[in-house]
Design brief:
The chain has 202 residues and is α/β, with parallel strands linked by helices. It is built from eight helices and five strands.
């Protein structure tokens, strides 16, 4: 079985090419092209993220994205902010990080497996959209404790475990793509387990 690092090294640039115009010039498989049509609703969570964090952004705020991929969303977010802000991206994929570094020289990028790392870059705001889907509940708790050590704010999208067409489709997509681990969470159980983690449901 592939490791998460191997999976994302092989997947992330092509995945993002169906979601952003990431200038990768990569040829998209029919499989990913079809899957890309179902990613359009993900745009709304980017809009929601900005609404949540915009009032907490001031000059010299540092913002860290977990699962930054090739940096396109960081760039999109930076264009909305008219303040002097530092952006830092972290991703498990070395391919994505090198792609991002070559494309954006005004951001910092680090390759790290955040399910195992003992440290995270220091920031005022952390976020991850479609990121904690690939962490166990214990890995999420450990990560949030590291964020709390920095007395920072954070926003994550959380995949809810429920039976519907999109979740069933997503399950089969991940299985067919060979994703080594992915999770969806029961809402009540998730909130209970993160009860001591300064977690607020939005």
């Amino acid at each position: 079985m592939k490791s998460s690092e191997q999976y994302w090294n092989n997947k992330i640039i092509e995945w993002e090419s169906t979601y952003y115009d990431n200038e990768s010039q990569i040829s998209k498989s029919t499989f990913e092209t079809i899957a890309g049509f179902f990613r359009k609703p993900l745009i709304q969570r980017k809009v929601n993220l900005y609404k949540i964090i915009k009032d907490f952004i001031a000059d010299n705020t540092s913002i860290c994205e977990f699962g930054c991929g090739s940096g396109d969303f960081m760039n999109e977010l930076s264009l909305k902010i008219d303040k002097n802000v530092k952006f830092v991206g972290v991703d498990i994929s070395e391919n994505a990080i090198q792609f991002a570094k070559n494309k954006f020289n005004n951001f910092e990028f680090y390759k790290s497996d955040l399910s195992k790392s003992n440290s995270i870059p220091k920031a005022n705001i952390y976020f991850g959209l479609g990121f904690i889907d690939y962490l166990t509940i214990n890995e999420i708790i450990d990560l949030i404790k590291k964020i709390d050590d920095h007395k920072a704010k954070y926003v994550f999208s959380v995949p809810e475990k429920k039976i519907n067409f999109i979740n069933i489709l997503h399950f089969f997509y991940l299985k067919m793509a060979g994703c080594p681990k992915f999770y969806k969470f029961n809402k009540e159980s998730f909130l209970n387990k993160l009860d001591n983690c300064n977690f607020i449901e939005l």
